[in-house]
Amino acid sequence: MSEQPDPDRVEERAAELLPEERSAGGSDDPQAQAQAILEDSDARTEDPEGTKHDSMQTPD
After folding, report:
1. Are 25 and 42 in contact (CB under 8 A)?
2. Which one of 2, 39, 40, 50 has the fewest beta carbons within 10 angstroms of its own beta carbon?
């Protein structure tokens, strides 16, 4: 698994949550939600083949 995202990236991402992300559970803590989003994104970027079956965001 990749390391935690840079705190500045988390702060920026937390400020820019999408409407569907705001309505999803976890928006009570936008920092934690942003960190989870970035960790998932980074993992898919670093290992697309290894993560494509676990994520709807990675195309077949």
Report:
1. no
2. 50
Closest residue by Cα to residue 13 from 33, 28, 42, 43 = 33
- 60 with 52: CB under 8 angstroms? yes
3 state SS of 10: helix
Please tell me the distance from the alpha carbon of residue 4 to that of residue 25, in angstroms, as a whole number: 21
In sign, the C-alpha dihedral spanning 16, 22, 26, 28 is positive
pTM above 0.85, yes or no: no
**How many angstroms separate the CA atoms of 26 and 30, rounded?**
7
Q: Is 52 exposed, middle or buried (0-12, 13-18, 19+ CB in 10 A)?
A: middle
Q: What is the rounded CA–CA span in Å between residue 58 and residue 60?
A: 7
